[in-house]
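Local shape tokens

___
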Amino acid sequence: MTEDTLHPGLVRLAKRVADQMRCSRSTAERYIEGGLVSVDGRVIEVPGARVAPHQRVVLEANASLMDLAPVTLLLNKPAGHEAGLGAPAAATAQRAHASRSQGAPLAQALLTEAHHVADDASGIRVLQRHFKLLACHTPLPTEASGLVVYTQDARIARKLAEDIESLEQECIVEVAGTMAEGGLARLCHGLSFNGRPLPPVKVSWQNETRLRFALKGIRPGQVPSMCEAVGLRVVALRRIRLGRVPLAKMPEGQWRYLQPWEKF
């Protein structure tokens, strides 16, 4: 039994747009997914939606596929969420990895319209296509929180993948215990990790229980190991900056768009 049999008199929205605009089905689908098509005054983003002959289907005035640029989303990841296996093709592996991590939920599941920060200054209209084909090249440990980047933009993905070792990352680390004498100087320079001397990093006290780290080429487990070497135990770690892009005051569990003038 075909769809046309199930829905007599109704046609797919993509077919209707293609017929009206005299364009290909694939072009019609891009218009629809770009939020450029309305049915009876309501924007519809699903090419397979069914419409009746009497319904009014309108393509936005001066609509251009050239305006459908890829987007980059900045998420304030909560602790306990899994993030950062890289390319979209790794989605299946990411789910499997999450299940191995004691059922940790995927941070990418927070990228929905419901979690979009209310005061996003980008002015970009949220579309369902913005949540597809996202890549993450800024991993964070499951137990850590803070800034994570998801992008559709191949140029940004390439830059993050190639430059992640040289991008300075700023983290706030909550610690417990008593620091050994001269410990702050050793954190800045003089420690080793995995048998190799660490390069100089910038470490300072933010308050009595929190340290600020600014470092490049960070390795999984490096910061906890550094803290343990000077008598401290890491209670929580939050990344607040990647290169020149800050987390700022974005609430935990919410996301915003990277603005055109922001550069990592």
